[in-house]
Amino acid sequence: MAILVTGGAGYIGSHTCVELLNDGYQVIVVDDFSNSNPESLKRVEQITGKQLKTYPIDLLNQIDLEKVFKENKIEAVIHFAGLKSVGESVAVPLKYYRNNVISTLILCEVMRKHRVKNLVFSSSATVYGATDKMPVSEDAFLKPVNPYGRTKHLIEELLRDLYQSDKEWSITLLRYFNPIGAHESGNIGEDPNGIPNNLLPYISQVAVGKLQRLNIFGDDYPTKDGTGIRDYIHVVDLAKGHLKALEKITSITGVETYNLGTGRGYSVLEMIDAFENASGKKIPYTVVDRREGDSAICYANPNKAREHLKWQASRDIHLMSKDAWRWQQKNPKGYQEIVDPRQTGVY
Ligand code: UFG
Question: Which domains does the chain show, CATH number per domain?
Fold first, then answer.
């Protein structure tokens, strides 16, 4: 029996593949590499000393996907594949609806045809939108404020309808907060295309000298130091949450939603401080206007995942920063260039 991981070469996908292989699962990856690099999967194999099977296909291609299900005995699917840039989703919403929603629809149809009805879906805290009741729980009102968030919300609804129509399905919707950090080896990590949109990859590119200074988007929020507060979670903790969800869906049917966060919020200035300590580098910054669509504070109530899945994040922001920095130093150009570790002083 194997686990199919869509988008397995991506940031969270690759870390989840490591945990799956370490736990003895057989792993099959489907990835079109439009926003990821096959090198990440090679590194996953190096880290674990185990092999996975890869299909370089687009989920929108139903014929190719059918082949994956015919050739393998798949027990469950972890579905990461999708586009994730908020700004891009505003500029090209149709691309996002097609890539995220239609591909999930096709995946579900193929799964149903092959009688594979166990699914873990990669959702996002972005589905909560501009809620101001913190910490946010799974039963909060959902009002995503951008097309990316609306695709995640739509998929959640689609999956709930699917379960209502056929109670043999077992579906887990995981709402991620702000994943950062990297595997402790420093060999896999986040490799954004172009200039990063998110805080941590931006900070680490400033630290490594690729970018000159950070822009802080507003210091006049009603928070302790005026900068935005988020629930940063180590990507390895997040990956481990998927294994807990997998155990659950392969034992009972239903559709359940879980927040995967730490339950603690940190400000932009606190994250800069943590990263400066971890890296020994100064992060120069300028305070600029607020970024449109940003909320002041967002952090999770993670109790449901703790109670139902027996999962809890254990890595703090210092370890998150240290691991992110190790990855950045060892791979200043991400997966584009393989650096000899003897030249970086990082082993
Ligand atoms: N920030 C800056 N400067 C930057 C980037 C970010 O000051 O260059 C600030 C933001 O204003 C915010 C905080 O850092 O206060 C975190 O911003 P991120 O862009 O890292 O993360 P967001 O919380 O805005 O969004 C992220 C993902 C979404 C996802 C959401 C889930 O980008 O896709 O987390 O909560 F949906």
Answer: 2-343 (3.40.50.720)
CB within 8 Å of 201: residues ≥ 6 apart: 190, 192, 324
C-alpha 200 to ligand 1 mean position (Å): 9
Residues 61-120 have pLDDT tens digits of 999 999 999 999 999 999 999 999 999 999 999 999 999 999 999 999 999 999 999 999
Q: Tell me: pLDDT of 264 over 90.
A: yes
* Residues having CB within 6 Å of any atom of ligand 1: 84, 86, 124-126, 177-178, 197-199, 202, 214-217, 228, 230, 268, 291, 294, 298
Closest ligand 1 atom to 268 CA:
14
Relative to the CA of 271, which ligand 1 atom is closest?
Answer: 14
pLDDT in tens, 307-322: 999 999 999 999 999 9
Rg (CA), the chain: 19
Kind and range of the H or E run holding 267: strand 266-267
